Amino acid sequence: MAILKIARMGHPVLLETAVPVDDPLAPDIQRLLADMTETLQDAGGVGLAAPQVYQPRRLFIWHLPAARAENGVAVPLSVVFNPEITPLSEARELGWEGCLSIPGLRAAVPRYRAIRLTGLDARGAPFAAELSGFAARIVQHETDHLNGILYPMRMSDFRYFGFNEETERHNQPLPEIV
Ligand code: NI
Description:
Layout: H1 27-43, E1 47-49, E2 59-64, E3 75-87, E4 92-97, E5 105-112, E6 114-120, E7 126-132, H2 133-145, E8 161-163, H3 164-170
Antiparallel strand pairs: 1-2, 2-3, 3-6, 4-5, 5-8, 6-7
The protein binds nickel (II) ion.
Nickel (II) ion binds next to helix 2.
């Protein structure tokens, strides 16, 4: 295993459309997955998509610590190959998010409140899940990475964009999306 370098905003690999993973169990994909896992554990984020480590392939890993889950239930580290997202309603909300490719900054980004996620799981088997709140936000953010989209490209109000230390200290309340 290895800790991989993470591409930062401005590198063109982050703007590519990633290609589907044909065989999730192929040795090169399994090695990439192991390295991404070690990289995420080292970097300390909640998600990492393959293009962020210079591999434009359609997979990401994510997890949700209990302390950050609205219902207090942790989601263990999971991999999703070839994800597809369907919003469960048009309802969206603003929430804070950051990105390992945009270190030190965070912003309020509009995302669907609830989604259906389909894809292939760690064994390469099809699965479907319904997610809401921060879990849905993470998965929308990571799937965007596979389509060359970074969170500033989703922002609706640049007043809620700043350095982590400043935005956390001042903790501006976020408006409802109407
Ligand atoms: Ni990101």
